[in-house]
């Protein structure tokens, strides 16, 4: 399994877990919310929204275009902190840790 296949597998598992926890939305946030320039769009989106509408699409784009994947990657602290307000996110923390490990250098 190459780095793109492994990353795709991890992202698919993240999507499945978001759906299983009832965090997956059927309608996107407003264009204004998605256009936030703050890290993680923290001023306009919840963590689950950021994962679904910004993180996953950007990662899938990198994979589809065979562009370089991130090598310094650490979103676990953000998701962990967000889980205090969105307790359902706790279920995705092990998977986020796996993504952090993989994209933080293990894929090189």
What structural class results from the helix and strand content? mainly alpha
Shape: globular
The DSSP helix count reads: 5
Query: Please, what is the CATH homologous superfamily?
Result: YqcC-like
Termini gap: 13 Å
Radius of gyration: 13 Å
Q: Strand tally, please?
A: 0
CATH topology: de novo design (two linked rop proteins)
The ordered H/E elements are HHHHH
Q: Let me know the largest β-sheet.
A: none
Notes on the protein architecture:
With about 110 residues, this protein is an all-alpha fold. The chain has one domain (about 5-15, about 40-105): Up-down Bundle (de novo design (two linked rop proteins)). About 55% of the residues lie in helices and about 0% in strands. It is built from five helices and no strands. It has helices spanning about 5-20, 30-35, 45-65, 75-80, 95-105. The two termini are about 15 Å apart. The relative contact order is 0.19. This is YqcC-like domain-containing protein. InterPro entries: UCP006257 (IPR007384), YqcC-like_dom (IPR023376), YqcC-like_sf (IPR036814). Pfam families: DUF446.
